[in-house]
């Protein structure tokens, strides 16, 4: 056996492609700022990449919300139903997760909404509110064009859904019709919202400075509080000074604006995805793609002979085999310790890895996750600078932010460098954002509707 050569210096050089200089980050911020302005303006909204959808939520929770509310949270292969009882500075919450069988995810919209309505009715029976009339907040985490607080048209399905007869239609009406077909429960759907909005509302109930909601999970998106006068596309109740904008910033870069920092690995991930050319920024950040970016880099460096003595494994060469949770596990090892890294490499059939290989693998993970954290930070700093408020709390949810050992710290450091002098910010982990947020939106919305009545 010859001496193992340490290829870490060459790996570091190869990984420079993941590094974004401060100059590049400032350029990204200025491009995102321009795209936000395009999304908010009447003349450019139709063709803008970053849509800046209006949510029609203009009142944040004030902590005085009281009563029982239902919430429905549909964002992926299962959905949750919750009942929330809001009292003086406390709330009790019960929830249940229901599966959505594949045949329903790919069947008709009618069948999907009938399934949801049935689960809702069963949940109400189990919680002894079957005979009560309750308000419901509906978190729907798919691209939605909102026309009002209770009207939202599905723009396109994502995440494995393809139910017929729903795209371009009002999803609230779809659910109302299903509830009416049953005829056994009384539910008022008070609001439909996106998961970023739910996160913001949930955090704002505890912390009144919370004016940005961020998701860094399977996908990535953000919403923020904008001055109504800056929203030319707003056509709702006049007279409220602020409203919530759902940026849909995952699509930032779909027109090529991020190409100057994208790598061959980003292009490969995009080409092989179910939606090539779409959600370009999201594909550089979120949990659905991070592990695959690392895997593609490891494959390239192995073929170059810089890793594993040039010997890969069947799993390493298989798409999707390097999970994003591996990135968090590998980076959780203390410096000089490689036990998690060794476990991961063994699972991938790479037990011939040397300690130098492990150091290299960790470096690749760090470069990919740091770039993701810096991109998110550039986006948040852009919003903070645009809002120009002295102190803002950012409510954050999602598996990447929640479980990656350094994501929070990386974001704190980077945002601090990028915001204008005098702007202070806090990052707050949302406890159960989309569920509680939906109930709070329902509570606030009911308060709004009562005040109009």
From TrEMBL:
Q: Return the InterPro entries for the record.
A: ATPase_NBD (IPR043129), Hexokinase (IPR001312), Hexokinase_BS (IPR019807), Hexokinase_C (IPR022673), Hexokinase_N (IPR022672)
What catalytic activity does the UniProt entry give for this protein?
D-glucose + ATP = D-glucose 6-phosphate + ADP + H(+); D-mannose + ATP = D-mannose 6-phosphate + ADP + H(+); D-fructose + ATP = D-fructose 6-phosphate + ADP + H(+); a D-hexose + ATP = a D-hexose 6-phosphate + ADP + H(+)
Residue ranges spanning the membrane: these are none
GO cellular component entries:
cytosol; mitochondrion
Which stretches are annotated as coiled coil? none
Annotated function: Catalyzes the phosphorylation of various hexoses to hexose 6-phosphate.
**Protein name according to UniProt:** Phosphotransferase
Lineage of producing organism: Eukaryota, Metazoa, Ecdysozoa, Arthropoda, Hexapoda
């Amino acid at each position: 056996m010859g001496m193992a050569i340490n290829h870490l210096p060459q790996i570091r050089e190869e990984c420079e492609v993941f590094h974004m200089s401060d100059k590049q980050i400032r350029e990204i911020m200025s491009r995102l700022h321009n795209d936000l302005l395009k999304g908010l303006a009447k003349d450019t909204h139709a063709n803008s990449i970053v849509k800046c959808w209006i949510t029609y939520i203009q009142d944040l929770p004030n902590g005085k919300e009281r009563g029982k509310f239902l919430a429905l949270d549909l964002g992926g292969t299962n959905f949750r139903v919750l009942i929330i009882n809001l009292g003086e500075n406390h709330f009790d919450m019960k929830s249940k997760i229901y599966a959505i069988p594949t045949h329903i995810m790919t069947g008709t919209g009618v069948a999907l909404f009938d399934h949801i309505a049935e689960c809702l009715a069963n949940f109400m029976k189990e919680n002894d509110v079957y005979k009560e009339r309750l308000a419901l907040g509906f978190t729907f985490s798919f691209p939605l064009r909102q026309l009002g607080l209770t009207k939202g048209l599905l723009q396109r399905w994502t995440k494995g859904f393809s139910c017929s007869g729903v795209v371009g239609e009002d999803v609230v009406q779809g659910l109302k019709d299903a509830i009416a077909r049953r005829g056994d429960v009384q539910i008022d759907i008070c609001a439909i919202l996106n998961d970023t909005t739910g996160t913001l509302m949930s955090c704002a109930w505890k912390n009144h400075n919370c004016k940005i909601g961020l998701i860094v999970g399977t996908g990535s998106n953000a919403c923020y509080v904008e001055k109504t006068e800056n929203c030319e596309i707003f056509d709702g109740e006049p007279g409220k000074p602020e409203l919530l904008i759902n940026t849909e910033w995952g699509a930032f870069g779909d027109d090529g604006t991020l190409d100057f920092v994208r790598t061959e690995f980003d292009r490969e991930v995009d080409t092989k995805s179910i939606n090539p050319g779409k959600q370009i920024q999201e594909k550089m950040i979120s949990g659905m793609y991070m592990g695959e970016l690392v895997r593609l880099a490891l494959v390239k460096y192995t073929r170059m002979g810089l890793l594993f003595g040039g010997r890969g494994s069947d799993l390493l060469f298989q798409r999707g085999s390097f999970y994003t949770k591996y990135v968090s596990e590998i980076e959780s090892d203390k410096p000089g310790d490689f036990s998690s890294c060794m476990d991961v490499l063994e699972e991938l059939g790479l037990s011939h890895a040397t300690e130098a290989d492990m150091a290299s693998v960790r470096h690749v993970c760090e470069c990919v996750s740091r770039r993701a954290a810096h991109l998110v930070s550039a986006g948040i700093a852009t919003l903070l600078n645009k809002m120009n408020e002295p102190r803002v709390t950012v409510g954050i949810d999602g598996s990447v932010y929640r479980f990656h050992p350094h994501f929070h710290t990386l974001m704190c450091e980077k945002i601090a460098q990028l915001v204008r002098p005098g702007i202070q910010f806090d990052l707050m982990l949302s406890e159960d954002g989309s569920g509680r947020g939906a109930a709070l939106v329902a509570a606030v919305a009911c308060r709004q509707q009562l005040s109009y009545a």
